[in-house]
Amino acid sequence: MMTADMQLVIAALAGIGLAVVVIVRGRLHPFIGLLCGAFTVGLLAGLPLPDVAKAVQKGVGDIIGGTGLVVALGLSLGAMLHLSGAAASLAKAALRMTGVQAAPWATLGIAIVVGLPLFFETGLVLLLPIVVAAAEEMTGKDGPERDAAKLRLIMPALAGLGVVHALVPPHPGPLLAVEALGASLGKTMLYGIAIAIPTAIISGPLLAKFTTRGVRLEAPVLHDHALSIAPPARLLSLLIVLLPVLMIATGELGQMIPGMKGTAWLVAASNPVVALLLTNLIALPLLFGRRLRDAAIQNAVWHETMGAAGAILLAIGAGGALKQVLVTAGLSDLLARTVLMYSISPLLLGWLVAVGIRLAAGSATVATITAVGIMPGVVASSGVSPELVVLAIGAGSVFFSHVNDPGFWLVKSYVGTSTADTFRTWSMLETAISVVGLALVMALSYVV
């Protein structure tokens, strides 16, 4: 490795390390921490300050202009499903149809279905209070056995949300990776679902049998707050949840039919922004009916949406800035040369890069943004399937959630576990998703 390459690697490690310190130790928002890291990388790599500033602006603009719309529209749809009681109605109905023995599998299925169109934190806030309440009703034992039984219902729900967040578009992370690497959205969805289901089963119901033993729960800190309105019909709620995924899938599959490729309405349907916008417009009257124009309902929906969107968009925008500075400094080219020189698997490399950023920055979406930004050269030079690289990076992006991940504290607050037990349950669940997901991606690479 040449001196310039060593300087670049040191600059990248120093910038990411600084971001970790100011976020974890300095208690600064990831937006500020990641921007500080981006400027540090650029300056230590030898870039002039004006060039670093331009790269930061480009990185933020690219992310907010593309993925930012999907994030905002997904959050608003989540707010509607939450405040109307649609998601709660679906979850409670499904749980009533199952006995105690089948309940963990029911919560897993609910989380996968309801989590498909939602940002991870939105799905977490929306579903966890429902599952926790259902677990309270369905477990009659006292003491540690009762707590373990509750957790065996809760952990599969977390696994379902985690796998779709990491592996299945139109979640923002996988969707951004699809666009950045030039992958097929339809193939990525198909491969992602095929990998997500067994991954969720292993990391959810099966793993929970071992990680929940002896865990004691405290009273949850956070509670759910929804509007006092009659929930919509369950079939209607299910339609709204699945509509964006069905539109995208129809658009992608329809263009595979001879003579239909490029058809305007199919192209529009397969666009995630169009699909989510139309779903939002359809959901408003169907979920709220005549009360759609009530000021209280409108204020609640958009207040919940904008409050969550602000923090998320700032964080992923700063992640885009860090990614762009790393690309401008030449890290993408360095990785491409390394893969060719040492025959490293591009799938493993993408996973490792995402794992490193995940452990440093905390955010799975930021980890994905950063990793895909420096992987296009590797994909182009190696000829590997870009769809599988998307999924490998997605799997790496959820590795070992810990104290710098907002999801860690959300889970702890809603479930009622201690910090140590949150590591034992939630952090191990995320790690299982990451490792099992990578193993299945590697296995799939020998088939497709």
In short:
By secondary structure, this protein is an all-alpha fold.
Low-pLDDT segments: none
- How far is the N terminus from the C terminus? 34 Å
Radius of gyration: 22 Å
The H/E string reads HHHHHHHHHHHHHHHHHHHH
**What average pLDDT do the residues reach?**
83
Q: What shape does the CA trace take? A: globular
In percent terms, what proportion of residues is strand? under 5%
The helix-and-strand class reads: mainly alpha
Subcellular location: Cell membrane
Membrane topology: Multi-pass membrane protein
Protein name: Gluconate permease
Transmembrane segments: 6-24, 31-49, 69-91, 103-131, 151-168, 189-208, 235-253, 265-288, 300-322, 334-353, 386-403, 423-447
Question: How would you characterize the overall build of this protein?
Answer:
- The structure is a single chain.
- With 448 residues, this protein is mainly alpha-helical.
- 78% of the residues lie in helices and 0% in strands.
- The chain has helices spanning 3-25, 30-44, 49-83, 86-96, 103-115, 120-138, 144-167, 172-181, 185-211, 234-254, 264-269, 272-288, 295-329, 331-342, 346-361, 364-373, 376-382, 386-396, 406-415, 419-445.
- Helix 7 (144-167) packs antiparallel against helix 9 (185-211).
